[in-house]
Amino acid sequence: MKVAILAGGKGTRLAEETEVKPKPMVTIGGRPILWHIMKHYAHYGHKDFYIALGYKGEVIKRFIVDHTSLQGDLTVDLAKGSVHHELNGMHDLDWIVRLVETGDETQTGGRIKRLAPYIKNERFMLTWGDGVSDVDLNRLVEFHKSHGKLATITAVRPPARYGRLDLEGNRVAHFAEKPQLSEGWINGAFFVLEAQVFDYIDSDSTSWEKEPLERLAREGQLMAYCHDSFWQCMDTLREKYILEELWASGNAPWKTWR
């Protein structure tokens, strides 16, 4: 199945990192978080990627090209100006990656709409380029097929940022360090969508999270796949450090591949 990844945002809350690169290129364990996301999808057999570029998209292009060209052997003929590249079985990926310019100021819905000529009339998967999870993509797709609606959203309950205090007057009756959120679910991305959703997006200025999803919900066309295991976005440096620590421990929950 085709996988669309939105990778064009400016990541202003990670300004220390994103002044020189887009947020999907911020690294975890020496690899861009975009690479971690793509490895997750590829583990489940989804290797046809459509990356919607925007802010500093050339950095993502350079990474994808260099990932291949810097593996294996290179023969450079300086007189002819030619480069011969031999992988010699060293390349470990069999992905197809299409890097699509969608504009620096385009909103999330607009970026999705700009991928329509590539997705055509096929069912596709969609996520953001700044969050990882151990969601079982096979079960997610089967859930989507089972209900027959246009859109499935993955609903998650991430850990709270701070320890929770239950007070009785000034006395702490109960303390829980970074508990799972007990109230409601949030949008964890990891969508499965039918091509008809493109009709719900008006223009480049459309935010996917507003009118398109609101309208799909009103019309009964939006279903939630509830995922109560690991999920973590990377909006801040604090969240980057959380992911770095998990990766360094050797037990990163989102590392579903071997």
Kindly describe this structure.
It contains eight helices and 16 strands. Strands 1, 4, 7, 8, 10, 13, 14 and 15 form an eight-stranded mixed sheet that branches. It has helices at residues 15-18, 33-43, 57-69, 108-114, 116-119, 137-147, 211-218, 237-248; strands at residues 2-7, 27-28, 31-32, 48-53, 73-77, 82-86, 96-101, 124-128, 131-133, 151-156, 164-168, 171-176, 186-187, 191-193, 222-227, 231-233. The two termini are 21 Å apart. The model has no long low-confidence stretch (mean pLDDT 89). It is an alpha/beta fold and 258 residues long. It has a single domain, classed as Spore Coat Polysaccharide Biosynthesis Protein SpsA, Chain A (Alpha-Beta Complex), CATH 3.90.550.10. The protein is 27% helix and 28% strand. A hairpin with a 2-residue loop joins strand 2 and strand 3.
